Amino acid sequence: MKLNQLSVFLENKPGRLSEPCKVLADAGVNILTISLADTEQFGILRLIVPDWQKAREALEKAQCVVNVTEVVAVEVEDKPGGLQNVLQAMEEARLNIEYMYAFTFRRENKAIIVFRFEDPNTAVKLLQQKGLKILSSEEVCQRVEG
Amino acid sequence: MSGVKCTSNLFHPDSALDYLPVEQLRQLQLARYQAIVKRTYDKVELFRKRMEQRSLRPEDIKSLDDVAKLPFTVKTDLRDTYPFGLFASDMSDIVRLHASSGTTGKPIVVAYTQQDVDVWASVMVRTFAACGLGKGDIIQNSYGYGLFTGGLGAHYGAEALGATVIPTSGGNTERQIMVLKDFNVTAICCTPSYFLHIIERAGEMGIDFKALPLKAGIFGAEPWTESMRVRIEKEGGIKAYDIYGLSEIIGPGVASACCAQEGLHIFEDHFYPEIIDPQTGDPLPDGTEGELVFTTLSKWAMPMIRYRTRDITRLMTEQCPCGRTVRRIARIGRRSDDMFIIRGVNVFPSQIEEALLAVEGTLPHYQIVLTRTKGLDNMEVQVEVTADLFSDKIGAMEGLKQKLGKSVEHIIGIRAKVSLVEPHTIARSEGKAKRLIDKREM
Questions:
Q1: Are residues B199 and B348 in the same domain?
Q2: Over the stretch B272-289, which tens digit does the pLDDT of each residue have?
Q3: Are B347 and B333 in a shared domain?
């Protein structure tokens, strides 16, 4: 019930973001969602793609530094307080969120948010106990590419 | 003689000179020293003039202690007398010329008689033998062939050893890797930084380096560190031997590591070592760190009397476990002229390397960039991010930067800006690594 997220190291310079995107485009990899964390000097590009092995291979071949991390996709009601309910559940489960970002679509008033926890296995277990809907990789792909 | 012997099963007769009784070695050195001073005095005008200025005659060298009275020779002497001013032989007796790459102005030219070339091959035989190589080994020689002494020096030595030599010369890394793999190479000669580049490239090509028959690397021509040796041995699955030499003295073959891998044995029946204070020029006692000075005891075409190498090291006089009696120099991690001064602090690139290596997992692909803004010097250390170092968490990456910065500050005492850069953005060298970019306008 976890997703494999790819992270790519980028220097904070003009044109650096387009390089990995071009590599993925050339490899025919669709990006399901993307997030960029940046500092003054460097940035970390985080990606969710349907075929992470293929994407990783293409990026590494293009001499990018790539890291694979397990993240958790949680379904959130797309209405006021929807996210708050999920965060409340995480707080009660005493789960610390490293970072989070959203998928840019919604369907049937449901949004999906990606969470990075230190221990994704425990997080999935605790969140499911709280009755939250955790999406598998296939479910995410289905909903996004629909 | 106690402890291990490096070459028990492959002993080469030339190596017998490594084990001369010390008393006999000193007698030989004195006799050769006196002869070479006389020859240089008779044949080389610059040396004779300097002797006359000091009212010295060759006969004044009565013991090895007297050599401290002799004038030094420095690199600029070779430039000032370019091209042939320091030759002691007629050109008709000279069989080979080599020249330095000459990064500033004119190169320096060095000359060899047939006897010099034979001595050179012999000291390289002793080098290879000390590194455990012999007949039956397949040696890939990736030092550059040409005016640089590294290529031909190692080549003739490896042939005289009885090994099989593959003269790949430098460059074309993918072909180097193909040869390494397909020709069952057992030893490679190149600069340590180039070997790291080879390992890295081989990894990208999907080659399991440790599965290759390669067992030894004969690395020289640039200063490197003990931690770099450990890393090369771990990642390459080989023994990494440090060798030392310089064109002005003969080329490679001046000193070599042995199986003990603690310091480098000087072939001191041919090269007489001293350690001096680089500021005052005074001789320093054994064991004290200072500038290494060599006198060529048997070089006929171009003898060097008290040549200042600019390399910083110390003489190790204690008995080596390998049984060799010739003295050792400690690994040379720095040169007095690699040193740069920033905000009044003397810094050697090797210190930065140590600082980076002290932080776990950091690979030494780095570059130091010096800039000056509004009269203030700034030092930036660019470090390439590798898969081992990379984390998806900003905090972890910032923490790494901080750790690297602290480690540098801890070792050199001043703050440096650390930048994490993408892999392959720092230029790879196929020869000596260029670690320092000084953009300051002086």
A1: no
A2: 999 999 889 999 999 999
A3: no
